[in-house]
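To: structure subgroup
Subject: Chain for Friday's discussion

All,

I'm putting the inputs and outputs inline so they're searchable in the archive.
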Amino acid sequence: MSSVLKHTPLHSIHLESGAKMVDFGGWDMPVSYGSQLEEHHAVRQDAGMFDVSHMLNVDVNGNDALAYLRRLLANDAAKLTVPGKALYSCMLNAEGGVIDDLIVYFFSVDAWRVVVNAGTADKDVAWMQQVASSENFDVSITPRRDLAMVAVQGPNAREKLWSVRPDWKPATQDLTPFTGAMVADDTLVARTGYTGEDGFEVVLPAAQVEAFWRDLAGKGVRPCGLGARDTLRLEAGMNLYGQEMDEQVNPLVSGLAWTVSLKDADRRFIGRDALESAVVDRGLIGVKLLERGVMRGHMKVRAEQGEGELTSGSMSPTMGVSIGMARVPLGVQPGDALQVEIRGKWLPAEAVKMPFVRNGKIIA
């Protein structure tokens, strides 16, 4: 089976490093390089790096690029006017369900980039091309599998990146969150991430990524796998496609209403009609378990207002307790008492405001 899995340009380094590999969305990816716990703490306390080359950069170019993205995405690409600025959005189907969540970058009015998730990349590109052709937008959609991507995250991540690529510092030291800069041909450094820590996501030619990875490792940046990536994003209160939302779930019940721009009544993005008529009777909330145990996705949650379900759950390495996200009836507030069913027993839990952890500090 493993022979049919796709490999990133860093695959041989992962094997050389003794990584435990798993099938993730059809890609052979490292889940950890030894201790998932130590990888998690490295990102919270120092610096870690993740191979995210399985995600797909898609270039959108052409005279109609802006009009096309305003139709395609629930958030409004017209908000982006400064080169390098980025925006988080969902791409919806006609029913308002989430085809994928993504980041879109503005380079110029006719040149944009969309970064989509690995497991949904093929269907995303097919959908993007279908919308472009069926609605006659003058755009080209170019998947960039010639590029690799590395996330360098943690309180010391930026300084360590500059120590191995000092010539990148002038263009990147003043970047604000959700902004990127081109530092060389086909090399984008963006102040984005999926961990709740500061750092960069670096997109660069696949042929250059192995040397970049080895240079970072030489400065003590710890390789981290999917296991740490999941506990870090959960502590940061960040959604994961396929768990918090999917094609059957709209962003309004997934804690993502802030990514839907309804300001311009004339902008009829795909899925808008469905969202405007949707009954929103549930929402997403953080959950902290008050007894020993580990919460997982799909476990039942009870509140005074009714029953809900965990969408994600894990042990929090930073907090030392189990945390999760749950879709529950509207009206459940931070501080409310909850119960979670674990192995047939209802255990006490508390509703909390997310994120649980930010910049290394417990805030939940």
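Points worth raising on Friday:
The chain has two domains: 1-249, 281-362.
The two ends are 42 Å apart (CA to CA).

D.
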